[in-house]
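[job 4471] stage=fold_predict status=RUNNING
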Amino acid sequence: MADNKHKFLFRFRPVDRITILYIFLTASLLLFGTGSYENVTGHYLVRAGMLLFIWMILRLEEEFPGRLTRTVHQLYPLLFLTYFFPETAYLGDLFSHHLDPGIVRAEISVLGFLPSEAFSRCCSQPWFSELMHFGYFSFYLIITFFVVYYYAKLPHLAGKEIFIFLFSFYTFYLIFIFFPSEGPQYYLPAGKESMPDGYLFTHIMQKILLYGDKPTGAFPSSHIGMTWLMMYFFFKDKRKVFYWWLIPAILLTFSTVYIKAHYALDVMAGFLTVPVFAWSGNKVYDWFFATYTVPEEEPAMAKSL
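[job 4471] inference complete, writing C-alpha coordinates
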Protein backbone atom coordinates (compact mmCIF):
# COMPACT_ATOMS: atom_id res chain seq x y z
CA MET A 1 0.00 0.00 0.00
CA ALA A 2 2.77 2.45 0.93
CA ASP A 3 4.64 1.69 -2.30
CA ASN A 4 1.50 2.31 -4.37
CA LYS A 5 0.85 5.57 -2.58
CA HIS A 6 4.42 6.71 -3.17
CA LYS A 7 4.19 5.74 -6.83
CA PHE A 8 0.94 7.69 -7.24
CA LEU A 9 2.36 10.80 -5.60
CA PHE A 10 5.40 10.50 -7.81
CA ARG A 11 3.11 10.85 -10.82
CA PHE A 12 2.44 14.47 -9.89
CA ARG A 13 4.72 16.17 -12.36
CA PRO A 14 6.10 19.64 -11.67
CA VAL A 15 3.58 21.03 -14.19
CA ASP A 16 0.75 19.48 -12.17
CA ARG A 17 1.99 21.11 -9.01
CA ILE A 18 2.45 24.59 -10.47
CA THR A 19 -0.99 24.37 -12.09
CA ILE A 20 -2.63 23.32 -8.83
CA LEU A 21 -0.82 26.16 -7.05
CA TYR A 22 -2.19 28.68 -9.56
CA ILE A 23 -5.69 27.26 -9.14
CA PHE A 24 -5.53 27.77 -5.38
CA LEU A 25 -3.93 31.22 -5.63
CA THR A 26 -6.67 32.51 -7.90
CA ALA A 27 -9.33 30.78 -5.80
CA SER A 28 -8.04 32.83 -2.85
CA LEU A 29 -8.45 35.99 -4.96
CA LEU A 30 -12.04 35.00 -5.64
CA LEU A 31 -12.55 34.53 -1.92
CA PHE A 32 -10.94 37.90 -1.22
CA GLY A 33 -13.32 39.54 -3.68
CA THR A 34 -16.48 37.91 -2.36
CA GLY A 35 -19.29 40.43 -2.76
CA SER A 36 -17.47 42.32 -5.53
CA TYR A 37 -17.48 39.68 -8.26
CA GLU A 38 -20.57 38.55 -10.11
CA ASN A 39 -21.34 34.88 -10.77
CA VAL A 40 -18.34 33.79 -8.70
CA THR A 41 -19.78 30.30 -8.15
CA GLY A 42 -19.07 29.33 -11.73
CA HIS A 43 -15.37 30.13 -11.31
CA TYR A 44 -15.18 27.96 -8.20
CA LEU A 45 -16.93 25.12 -10.03
CA VAL A 46 -14.47 25.35 -12.92
CA ARG A 47 -11.58 25.06 -10.48
CA ALA A 48 -13.18 22.08 -8.79
CA GLY A 49 -13.57 20.48 -12.21
CA MET A 50 -9.91 21.16 -13.04
CA LEU A 51 -8.70 19.58 -9.83
CA LEU A 52 -10.96 16.58 -10.43
CA PHE A 53 -9.63 16.27 -13.98
CA ILE A 54 -6.00 16.31 -12.78
CA TRP A 55 -6.76 13.66 -10.17
CA MET A 56 -8.59 11.52 -12.75
CA ILE A 57 -5.84 11.68 -15.36
CA LEU A 58 -3.28 10.77 -12.69
CA ARG A 59 -5.36 7.77 -11.66
CA LEU A 60 -6.02 6.74 -15.26
CA GLU A 61 -2.36 6.98 -16.15
CA GLU A 62 -1.54 4.91 -13.09
CA GLU A 63 -4.09 2.22 -13.91
CA PHE A 64 -3.88 2.32 -17.72
CA PRO A 65 -0.41 3.55 -18.70
CA GLY A 66 -0.16 4.22 -22.38
CA ARG A 67 0.17 6.83 -25.09
CA LEU A 68 -3.33 8.30 -24.74
CA THR A 69 -3.31 8.93 -20.99
CA ARG A 70 0.30 10.07 -21.10
CA THR A 71 -0.42 12.56 -23.92
CA VAL A 72 -3.45 14.00 -22.13
CA HIS A 73 -1.38 14.36 -18.96
CA GLN A 74 1.30 16.22 -20.88
CA LEU A 75 -0.96 18.57 -22.83
CA TYR A 76 -3.89 19.41 -20.52
CA PRO A 77 -2.22 22.59 -19.09
CA LEU A 78 -2.51 24.16 -22.56
CA LEU A 79 -6.28 23.71 -22.36
CA PHE A 80 -6.36 25.26 -18.90
CA LEU A 81 -4.42 28.30 -20.15
CA THR A 82 -7.22 29.11 -22.59
CA TYR A 83 -9.54 29.54 -19.60
CA PHE A 84 -7.14 31.31 -17.27
CA PHE A 85 -6.18 34.09 -19.69
CA PRO A 86 -9.62 35.65 -20.32
CA GLU A 87 -10.40 35.16 -16.63
CA THR A 88 -7.70 37.71 -15.77
CA ALA A 89 -10.06 40.42 -17.06
CA TYR A 90 -12.68 39.22 -14.59
CA LEU A 91 -10.28 39.02 -11.63
CA GLY A 92 -8.48 42.26 -12.52
CA ASP A 93 -11.56 44.44 -12.16
CA LEU A 94 -11.22 44.27 -8.38
CA PHE A 95 -7.69 45.54 -7.90
CA SER A 96 -6.79 48.65 -9.87
CA HIS A 97 -7.50 50.93 -12.78
CA HIS A 98 -6.15 49.99 -16.18
CA LEU A 99 -2.65 51.08 -17.14
CA ASP A 100 -3.56 52.13 -20.69
CA PRO A 101 -3.75 55.92 -20.13
CA GLY A 102 -0.25 55.98 -18.64
CA ILE A 103 1.19 53.78 -21.41
CA VAL A 104 -0.35 55.95 -24.12
CA ARG A 105 0.97 59.13 -22.50
CA ALA A 106 4.45 57.62 -22.18
CA GLU A 107 4.60 56.54 -25.82
CA ILE A 108 3.38 59.88 -27.13
CA SER A 109 5.77 61.72 -24.83
CA VAL A 110 8.79 59.69 -25.96
CA LEU A 111 7.95 58.86 -29.58
CA GLY A 112 5.45 61.55 -30.49
CA PHE A 113 2.96 58.97 -31.82
CA LEU A 114 1.45 55.55 -31.09
CA PRO A 115 3.16 52.80 -33.11
CA SER A 116 0.17 50.52 -32.56
CA GLU A 117 -2.04 53.07 -34.31
CA ALA A 118 0.40 54.12 -37.05
CA PHE A 119 1.86 50.75 -38.11
CA SER A 120 -1.26 49.27 -39.69
CA ARG A 121 -2.20 52.64 -41.18
CA CYS A 122 1.08 53.01 -43.06
CA CYS A 123 1.28 49.34 -44.12
CA SER A 124 -2.29 48.54 -45.06
CA GLN A 125 -1.69 46.24 -48.04
CA PRO A 126 -3.74 43.02 -47.78
CA TRP A 127 -0.66 40.80 -48.26
CA PHE A 128 1.16 42.57 -45.42
CA SER A 129 -1.86 42.34 -43.13
CA GLU A 130 -2.04 38.62 -43.92
CA LEU A 131 1.66 38.20 -43.09
CA MET A 132 1.22 39.98 -39.76
CA HIS A 133 -1.84 37.94 -38.84
CA PHE A 134 0.00 34.73 -39.69
CA GLY A 135 2.82 35.91 -37.41
CA TYR A 136 0.37 36.42 -34.58
CA PHE A 137 -1.30 33.05 -35.26
CA SER A 138 2.10 31.33 -35.07
CA PHE A 139 2.04 31.96 -31.31
CA TYR A 140 -0.37 29.04 -30.93
CA LEU A 141 1.74 26.90 -33.25
CA ILE A 142 5.02 27.46 -31.43
CA ILE A 143 3.45 26.77 -28.03
CA THR A 144 1.99 23.45 -29.18
CA PHE A 145 5.24 22.52 -30.91
CA PHE A 146 7.29 23.45 -27.85
CA VAL A 147 5.36 21.23 -25.45
CA VAL A 148 5.07 18.26 -27.82
CA TYR A 149 8.68 18.51 -29.00
CA TYR A 150 10.18 18.59 -25.52
CA TYR A 151 8.14 15.65 -24.30
CA ALA A 152 8.80 13.67 -27.49
CA LYS A 153 12.42 14.50 -28.29
CA LEU A 154 13.95 15.99 -25.14
CA PRO A 155 12.16 14.17 -22.29
CA HIS A 156 15.16 14.54 -19.98
CA LEU A 157 14.69 18.34 -20.19
CA ALA A 158 10.91 18.49 -20.52
CA GLY A 159 10.06 18.46 -16.81
CA LYS A 160 12.10 21.54 -15.99
CA GLU A 161 11.68 23.55 -19.19
CA ILE A 162 7.92 23.10 -19.36
CA PHE A 163 7.64 23.90 -15.67
CA ILE A 164 9.43 27.22 -16.33
CA PHE A 165 7.14 27.74 -19.33
CA LEU A 166 4.01 27.35 -17.17
CA PHE A 167 5.52 29.25 -14.25
CA SER A 168 6.09 32.18 -16.62
CA PHE A 169 2.58 32.01 -18.06
CA TYR A 170 0.98 31.94 -14.62
CA THR A 171 3.19 34.80 -13.45
CA PHE A 172 2.10 36.84 -16.47
CA TYR A 173 -1.51 36.13 -15.58
CA LEU A 174 -1.02 37.29 -12.00
CA ILE A 175 0.55 40.52 -13.32
CA PHE A 176 -2.46 41.01 -15.59
CA ILE A 177 -4.80 40.57 -12.63
CA PHE A 178 -3.06 43.08 -10.36
CA PHE A 179 -1.98 45.52 -13.09
CA PRO A 180 -4.62 45.25 -15.83
CA SER A 181 -4.33 46.88 -19.22
CA GLU A 182 -6.66 46.50 -22.18
CA GLY A 183 -4.35 47.05 -25.16
CA PRO A 184 -4.83 49.31 -28.18
CA GLN A 185 -7.52 47.20 -29.85
CA TYR A 186 -9.82 47.89 -26.91
CA TYR A 187 -8.57 51.26 -25.68
CA LEU A 188 -8.12 53.26 -28.89
CA PRO A 189 -11.06 55.45 -29.95
CA ALA A 190 -13.61 54.05 -32.39
CA GLY A 191 -12.21 53.88 -35.91
CA LYS A 192 -8.55 53.81 -34.88
CA GLU A 193 -8.75 50.23 -33.63
CA SER A 194 -9.80 48.80 -37.00
CA MET A 195 -7.46 46.58 -39.03
CA PRO A 196 -6.62 46.34 -42.75
CA ASP A 197 -8.26 43.39 -44.44
CA GLY A 198 -6.29 40.37 -45.56
CA TYR A 199 -6.95 36.78 -46.49
CA LEU A 200 -7.09 33.46 -44.63
CA PHE A 201 -5.10 34.14 -41.43
CA THR A 202 -6.54 37.62 -41.09
CA HIS A 203 -10.02 36.14 -40.85
CA ILE A 204 -8.90 33.27 -38.62
CA MET A 205 -7.32 35.68 -36.14
CA GLN A 206 -10.36 37.95 -36.21
CA LYS A 207 -12.52 34.99 -35.15
CA ILE A 208 -10.06 33.93 -32.44
CA LEU A 209 -9.87 37.46 -31.04
CA LEU A 210 -13.64 37.86 -31.22
CA TYR A 211 -14.45 34.71 -29.25
CA GLY A 212 -11.31 34.05 -27.21
CA ASP A 213 -9.86 37.44 -26.34
CA LYS A 214 -10.72 39.89 -23.59
CA PRO A 215 -9.59 43.45 -22.71
CA THR A 216 -6.76 42.23 -20.53
CA GLY A 217 -3.10 41.33 -20.47
CA ALA A 218 -1.46 43.97 -22.65
CA PHE A 219 1.43 44.97 -20.36
CA PRO A 220 3.91 43.35 -20.43
CA SER A 221 3.34 41.35 -23.62
CA SER A 222 3.09 37.68 -22.80
CA HIS A 223 3.20 36.97 -26.54
CA ILE A 224 6.68 38.46 -26.68
CA GLY A 225 7.84 37.14 -23.33
CA MET A 226 6.66 33.58 -23.90
CA THR A 227 7.74 33.39 -27.54
CA TRP A 228 11.29 34.50 -26.85
CA LEU A 229 11.49 32.40 -23.68
CA MET A 230 10.74 29.36 -25.84
CA MET A 231 13.24 30.61 -28.42
CA TYR A 232 15.83 30.86 -25.64
CA PHE A 233 15.15 27.23 -24.71
CA PHE A 234 15.44 26.17 -28.35
CA PHE A 235 18.71 28.10 -28.74
CA LYS A 236 20.10 26.51 -25.59
CA ASP A 237 18.84 22.96 -26.05
CA LYS A 238 18.41 22.41 -29.81
CA ARG A 239 19.95 25.14 -31.97
CA LYS A 240 18.48 23.76 -35.20
CA VAL A 241 14.91 24.18 -33.89
CA PHE A 242 15.70 27.78 -32.94
CA TYR A 243 16.43 28.56 -36.59
CA TRP A 244 13.26 26.77 -37.71
CA TRP A 245 11.16 29.18 -35.66
CA LEU A 246 13.22 32.35 -35.99
CA ILE A 247 11.25 33.94 -38.86
CA PRO A 248 7.80 33.20 -37.31
CA ALA A 249 9.07 34.60 -33.99
CA ILE A 250 10.25 37.81 -35.66
CA LEU A 251 6.95 38.16 -37.55
CA LEU A 252 5.06 37.59 -34.31
CA THR A 253 7.07 40.32 -32.59
CA PHE A 254 6.05 42.92 -35.16
CA SER A 255 2.51 41.60 -35.47
CA THR A 256 1.66 42.22 -31.82
CA VAL A 257 1.88 45.96 -32.50
CA TYR A 258 0.49 45.79 -36.04
CA ILE A 259 -2.79 44.11 -35.07
CA LYS A 260 -3.09 46.43 -32.04
CA ALA A 261 -2.87 43.67 -29.46
CA HIS A 262 -0.03 45.51 -27.70
CA TYR A 263 1.61 48.89 -27.36
CA ALA A 264 5.28 49.25 -28.25
CA LEU A 265 6.08 49.56 -24.54
CA ASP A 266 4.36 46.21 -23.95
CA VAL A 267 6.75 44.61 -26.45
CA MET A 268 9.84 46.11 -24.84
CA ALA A 269 8.65 45.05 -21.39
CA GLY A 270 7.92 41.56 -22.75
CA PHE A 271 11.52 41.18 -23.87
CA LEU A 272 12.73 42.17 -20.40
CA THR A 273 10.69 39.39 -18.80
CA VAL A 274 12.61 36.67 -20.67
CA PRO A 275 15.81 36.69 -18.57
CA VAL A 276 13.80 37.40 -15.41
CA PHE A 277 11.49 34.41 -15.85
CA ALA A 278 14.23 32.12 -17.14
CA TRP A 279 16.28 32.84 -14.01
CA SER A 280 13.43 32.87 -11.48
CA GLY A 281 11.76 29.80 -13.01
CA ASN A 282 15.00 27.87 -12.66
CA LYS A 283 15.34 28.95 -9.05
CA VAL A 284 11.76 28.04 -8.16
CA TYR A 285 12.08 24.66 -9.86
CA ASP A 286 15.33 23.85 -8.07
CA TRP A 287 13.85 25.01 -4.77
CA PHE A 288 10.69 22.91 -4.96
CA PHE A 289 11.60 20.04 -7.23
CA ALA A 290 15.33 19.41 -6.87
CA THR A 291 14.57 15.77 -6.11
CA TYR A 292 12.21 15.29 -9.07
CA THR A 293 13.51 12.97 -11.79
CA VAL A 294 11.84 11.69 -14.93
CA PRO A 295 10.37 8.21 -14.39
CA GLU A 296 12.61 5.54 -15.84
CA GLU A 297 10.04 4.44 -18.43
CA GLU A 298 9.12 7.97 -19.50
CA PRO A 299 11.93 8.79 -21.98
CA ALA A 300 11.32 5.70 -24.07
CA MET A 301 7.56 6.20 -23.93
CA ALA A 302 7.79 9.90 -24.72
CA LYS A 303 9.78 9.19 -27.86
CA SER A 304 6.85 7.24 -29.20
CA LEU A 305 4.65 10.34 -29.33
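[job 4471] summary: The CA atoms of residues 117 and 189 lie 10 Å apart.
[job 4471] exit 0
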